[in-house]
Design brief:
Length: about 450
Amino acid sequence: MSTQTQPKQSMIQGMTPATPIPASSSTTIMPAQELSQTSPQRQSQTQSQKNQEGPQGQDGQEGKDPNYQQCVRCVMDTTDPEIHFNKDGVCSHCQEFDRYANTIWSPDQKGAALLESMAAKIRAYGKNKEYDCIVGMSGGVDSSYLLYLAVRVMKLRPLAVHVDAGWNSELAVRNIENLCKGLNVELFTHVVDWEEMRDLQLAYLKSGVPNQDVPQDHIFFSRLYEFAIKNDIKYVLSGANHATESVLPKAWGYNAADCRQIKAIHKLFGTRPLEQFLMTGLFKTYLYYPYVKRMKLVRPLDLINYNKAEGIEFLANEFDWVYYGGKHFESRWTRFFQSYYLPKKFGYDKRLAHLSSLILSGQTTREDALKELAKLPYNESTLANDLEYIAKKLWISVEELEAFVAAPNRRHEDYPSNMAFEEFLRFVKRSLQKLGIRL
């Protein structure tokens, strides 16, 4: 483990108490303020569901599971076991978008005013401080555009933090360096102890659960908040946004903040102690960060007309930024996990959620999304290279890696977790809200 310092050259509108949420992540994180909207993951798909013909098929095609249904507005389908449809065939994700979008997302003059108010408050807080906010950098489009927005538009002085969990693509590293150099932002890079990361990642593969991104996502959040505390920074800027991430089935992910489950899985399948792997427990997540340290999580991308394709083009022209081929594919592990492990093992194709989010925000059409889904979720040659690379990094054979994918599926509920505690928090929050009390 080491920390490298590079020189400056080299559902929220506004602000909420902060809990560990990624700048851009594929993992469902459960902040205390959003517990009422989050339910535990349900049963994993059965083998028949897993093998059903997905959205690539045409309506009425022979051989399709008779219970299969796809939304007529977006492209989400019954591979999400919690989905339901109204009488017109519109799915629950679209209905939820319609109910809540205006309370979360303001890509208009109202958003511009809120963004300036947010920026003014952060600048006032940071007066006479070295940094007024912190940004977690992955090298992806969301965190990259967020850093540009923070510096050039909001006139903030952020500290950029990158956590290297061992799976960086070369493009991601180059993108981060180009952004920080071009914006004259100081970058801290924390390198995770690889022996511990490798052991925990293997433990998760052996566990057979859906969300294999938990180890790297948890360390991203815990180290980011540690840097914030160390540098006396109150405001955490997140690249999470409603325009490109409004749809994400809860059954396809799991709360990466659940360190009880991380410890349980590692105890069952790990082979060495985790001495350097910093974990963030319940006290820090739900009390210390948001209420003791009064840290605030802000989502500036929800207050602008954020368009993914336009953002990619802008970053490429301004900072020689290079796109990496898919959402969160700046991590080679996440590319394997999202494009191969989840679809092959559980039948979950995250492109459905990503494309549905873009449909709902008007950034693509359903027709174009269906054309994209007609393609394989991975490139054959890229997959072969990734399998070989990942197996080598984990000190196993490609055959062993494939065996983990083929092994029986397990649910996150099969292992000890904090689900019951989170259910209790939801109950408490609902009860307080009925009394007119908001935390």
